[in-house]
Design brief:
There is one protein chain. The protein has 210 residues and is α+β, with helices and mostly antiparallel strands. The chain has one domain: 3-Layer(aba) Sandwich (NADH Oxidase), CATH 3.40.109.10. Helices cover 45% and strands 14% of the residues. It has a four-stranded antiparallel beta sheet with strand order 1-2-4-3, sandwiched between helices. α2 crosses α7. The longest helix is centred in the middle third of the chain and has 25 residues. The radius of gyration is 19 Å and the shape is globular.
């Protein structure tokens, strides 16, 4: 079996982490770089990633995550926070980065800037928030796959109160919203979930070739 597929089969949503095992800094750096390389619409990456390691801060977050043990037992908790709204600055800053990185004159990118602005800026505030949240989920998929490839256990979590997370982490004042969180670390030997057979739809019920 292909090693990538083997690693995806090895991965599961870890329910109980080994509280004494830490993800090495070098592996965390690789994981975060892999996540930063995720695809996003127009390449805009309208989100930020918070790496929460501080134990006391995580104790404050735990009640807002329904008391789930992963919040305090995992090596780190990653919070993927989407922009709640945006204006021209999101596009302008991105294209300035393109100009600098690729050595392209800013004026040569004006047509692309106008195109993106014509598609994104007319969106309503709720549509903007929905769009940016969707982008975080693209990053989430890449994060989970990269973690599996590094043999780092993970648990993506939507079971939390985003309003409380935003308040504790100071996200609202930054125009951000906690969209999804991921606990990462190493599975505990006591986690029975690791022994469950992975259940997925049969390919013929999931995939249609046209």
């Amino acid at each position: 079996m292909n090693s990538y597929i083997e690693n995806l089969n090895w991965r599961y949503a870890t329910k109980k982490f080994d509280n004494y095992k830490k993800v090495p800094e070098k592996d965390l750096d690789i994981l975060l770089e892999a996540t930063s390389l995720s695809a996003s619409s127009y390449g805009l990456q309208p989100y930020e990633i918070l790496v929460v390691e501080d134990k006391e801060l995580r104790k404050k977050l735990q009640p807002a995550a329904w008391g789930q043990s992963q919040i305090t037992e995992a090596s780190h908790v990653l919070v993927l926070a989407n922009l709640t709204t945006f204006g021209e600055e999101l596009i302008d800053n991105y294209l300035q980065n393109v100009s600098t990185t690729r050595g392209i004159a800013s004026e040569d990118l004006e047509g692309y800037a106008d195109f993106m602005k014509s598609k994104l800026l007319p969106l309503s505030e709720s549509e903007k928030a929905t769009w940016t949240a969707r982008q975080t989920y693209i990053a989430l998929g890449n994060l989970l796959s990269a973690a599996a490839d590094l043999k780092i256990d993970s648990c993506p979590m939507e079971g939390f109160n985003s309003t409380e997370f935003n308040e504790i982490l100071g996200l609202t004042t930054k125009g951000l919203n906690a969209a999804v969180i991921v606990a990462i670390g190493y599975r505990s030997e006591e986690d029975a979930s690791q022994h469950y057979q992975k259940v997925r739809k049969a390919k013929e019920n999931l995939i249609t070739h046209l």
